[in-house]
Design a protein that fits this description.
Layout lengths: L5 H14 L1 H28 L17 E5 L15 H9 L6 E5 H10 L9
Antiparallel strand pairs: 1-2
Length: about 120
């Protein structure tokens, strides 16, 4: 039921959110997991020809371990430095999964960020 008084509508929304917080958070987590899986799957399909989300470096396939990596570094992209997590997934989907990003597991992503190259790619 729409309210004519915007303050009353805000108060009602706050009350609803407060009483249904567990359910709302559960729905948000589910939606975010589905979004992450969709984005990781699409990047993996385009970069590794795999229908299963996986790390482009080591092949890790457990979705909870996967993250998006900026191939040439975060500074090169126009989306800003503070975009990460769910916001980054939405941005990637809106921008048709740009080739400037790839799927890496957390370990490969951290190693690439810290040392410039992942140990899996290092020549021995």
């Amino acid at each position: 039921m729409p309210y004519k008084d915007p303050e009353k509508a805000k108060a009602n929304k706050r009350e609803y959110n407060k009483t249904n917080a567990k359910q709302i958070n559960k729905q948000k987590r589910k939606k975010h997991r589905e979004l992450k899986y969709e984005v990781m799957k699409e990047f993996s399909k385009r970069q590794s020809n795999s229908n299963v989300p996986c790390c482009a470096c080591c092949g890790e396939y457990i979705v909870e371990f996967l993250s998006l990596d900026h191939v040439d570094g975060r500074k090169m992209l126009e989306h800003g430095q503070n975009m990460m997590g769910t916001k980054l997934y939405y941005w990637a989907r809106r921008n048709d999964y740009p080739p400037t990003m790839q799927v890496l597991c957390f370990n490969c992503n951290c190693a690439k960020g810290s040392y410039g190259i992942c140990p899996h790619k290092e020549k021995k």
